[in-house]
Q: What sequence folds into this?
């Protein structure tokens, strides 16, 4: 669902007036990749071999850039990027770019998997941001169940859980919140809009479009592919 959501947002972000002006894509669904959060918690196998295999497959297909619509997988970003010779866009950079300028110096909440939070990839990539993180209780009671509900297509329950998680970070002083798991934007509803919510999936889609079209005419000829 997260990858399908990313593809929809990528298509909507592309300034195309006909089929031929859209960005050529190679999409590799690798649902058998070991769970990233389990690996980071030390209770599951590493996904790195599967991630590298997927990246190499996409590179061999002729793609000239790579995006990974999974926040937690970016804990292995350096290893994946060093295994291939095409650029890999970073979802954390994309999400931070979307922060409203007026809120850059304000506390920013982060809702993500336990693996993403424990890996610290957001704070490590952008230490200048004052990150507000959910407690382990909020992650276990609301965030991870919301993600599981999205995966099982129970969107009503997912939205209720996400709303509770958003409220907890607002109570901690967050002035904006990054939805740092690509399942969470699918649970977004009007109830969640207590503060600006930054959709990391949408941010990555817009970054990918800008990269693919950079320095190129709007027509499809010579377009870079993802």
A:
């Amino acid at each position: 669902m997260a990858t399908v959501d990313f593809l929809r947002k990528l298509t909507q972000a592309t300034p195309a007036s006909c089929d031929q002006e859209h960005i050529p894509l190679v999409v590799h669904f690798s649902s058998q990749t070991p769970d990233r959060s389990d690996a980071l918690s030390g209770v599951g196998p590493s996904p790195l071999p599967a991630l590298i295999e997927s990246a190499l497959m996409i590179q061999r297909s002729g793609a000239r850039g790579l995006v990974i619509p999974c926040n937690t997988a970016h804990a292995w970003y350096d290893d994946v990027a060093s295994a291939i010779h095409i650029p890999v866009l970073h979802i954390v950079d994309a999400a931070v770019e979307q922060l409203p300028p007026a809120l850059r110096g304000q506390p920013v909440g982060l809702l993500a998997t336990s693996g993403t939070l424990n890996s610290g990839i957001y704070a490590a990539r952008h230490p200048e941001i004052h990150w507000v993180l959910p407690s382990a209780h909020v992650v276990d009671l609301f965030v991870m169940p919301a993600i599981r509900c999205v995966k099982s297509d129970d969107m009503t329950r997912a939205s209720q859980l996400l709303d509770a998680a958003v409220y907890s970070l607002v109570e901690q002083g967050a002035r904006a919140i990054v939805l740092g798991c690509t399942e969470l934007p699918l649970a977004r509803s009007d109830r969640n809009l207590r503060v600006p919510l930054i959709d990391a999936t949408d941010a990555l889609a817009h970054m990918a479009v800008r990269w693919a079209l950079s320095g190129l005419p709007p027509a499809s000829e010579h377009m870079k592919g993802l």
User: Anything to note?
Assistant: Residues 39 and 127 are 24 Å apart (CA to CA). The domain at 2-90+203-213 is CATH 3.40.50.1860 (Rossmann fold). The first strand starts at residue 108 and ends at 111.
